[in-house]
Amino acid sequence: MSTVGVLGGTGPAGRGVAIRLASAGYDVILGSRDATRAEETASTLLARGEGVIRGATNDVAADCEIIIVATPFESAVATVKELKSKLAGKIVISMVNALVREGKELIPLYPPRGSMAAQLAFALPDSTIVGAFHHLPASEMENLDSGLDADVVIFSDDVAARDRVATMVAEMPGLRAIVAGSMSLASAIEAFTAVCISINIRYKAHSYVKLAGLRD
Amino acid sequence: MSTVGVLGGTGPAGRGVAIRLASAGYDVILGSRDATRAEETASTLLARGEGVIRGATNDVAADCEIIIVATPFESAVATVKELKSKLAGKIVISMVNALVREGKELIPLYPPRGSMAAQLAFALPDSTIVGAFHHLPASEMENLDSGLDADVVIFSDDVAARDRVATMVAEMPGLRAIVAGSMSLASAIEAFTAVCISINIRYKAHSYVKLAGLRD
């Protein structure tokens, strides 16, 4: 099993992915700017599930074989730029969405290169960027008993990398891996997160995307 | 029951919506540039379902109380501009997606105003634009026995209009109405159609979006 580092792993997005990766048998390092906070979050998550989750700095998390970027969108590029050499030659999974609250809605922002995955790809020319984990409800992800049965829509220009991430996602409890295609779909997949969250705010729900009519 | 006109109604998008509206008891006029073709399509659809569907020119279809724009994206603005005065004061539903094929994928295009719904809103300042029916698989829509159980994600800046469209959608067999919010979500909802179709091409499926975890 590969080791997986989660940059910005103490936030709601990172925590859910970390606990489900650990449940699937992956060694997870939860990275944060604040190592103490990461250690505390790792302990909390460990108490709720099985497997190995350690807390550390983002710099230590970046030593893992596969890296997940789970920071807020505003700090994603700055975070990976500092770790550029460590991330070279690796799969870097972006779960970053550029969204802002506007009244009772979340609305999508379109970064200059079209998507946050494209921003990361530009910042990390020697890494292989894969997009995944965008539409998932954080609280359901973090609670292994939530009954979550969600689809993870995956994209990358690198066919081998997206297949590898799909294999990893399929091992995680409560998630099904769906490969959508190339980075040409990145903006559409990231932006739809705003739709999912806006619907959840409106309906006071924790809904998620499930594509009906696909064979498991 | 209101009368509903479907502009560009002989295409795959329009046909499915027409047959399900007629099944729900709406009087539907299928519009086309070619009235003969519209009459032929209407007869074919009538033979497969129940209710009233007539074929006519787009100009005649525009006399209905509610209008659905189901043309290809390239001709949507030109089509509605010609009918501007007839569409004034009415709800105009855009199901238009700007998509192009690129290899084995469909990818989204972003029109200058962000979405096709926004392009239509600019062309029709005296109409009320609502977006709906974007992510639906055409063949499953047209076949009333397909077992379709899909979500229709609805958006508009006009709260009353989107609620009215939601009521209409909820009456159509096989569809659930989900109000996402305002036109700020239009680009994200339209573009996600490219993701749905790309997944269907890749998996040789006719899948569709169903939001799990929402009460019916």
Task: Describe the structure in your own words.
2 copies of one chain form a homodimer. Chain A has 216 residues and is an alpha/beta fold. In chain A, 41% of the residues lie in helices and 26% in strands. Chain A is built from 9 helices and 11 strands. The first copy, chain A, has helices at residues 12-23, 35-48, 58-61, 73-82, 84-87, 116-123, 138-142, 159-171, 186-203, and strands at 3-7, 27-32, 52-57, 66-69, 91-94, 99-102, 105-108, 128-131, 150-156, 175-181, 208-212. In chain A, the strands form 2 sheets. The first copy, chain A, has an 8-stranded mixed beta sheet, with helices on both faces. The longest helix of chain A is centred in the C-terminal third of the chain and has 18 residues, at 186-203. The first copy, chain A, is globular. Chain A starts with a strand and ends with a strand. The model of chain A has no long low-confidence stretch (mean pLDDT 96). Chains A and B meet through strand 7, strand 10, helix 9 and strand 11 of A and strand 7, strand 10, helix 9 and strand 11 of B. Strand 11 (208-212) of chain A pairs antiparallel with strand 11 (208-212) of chain B.
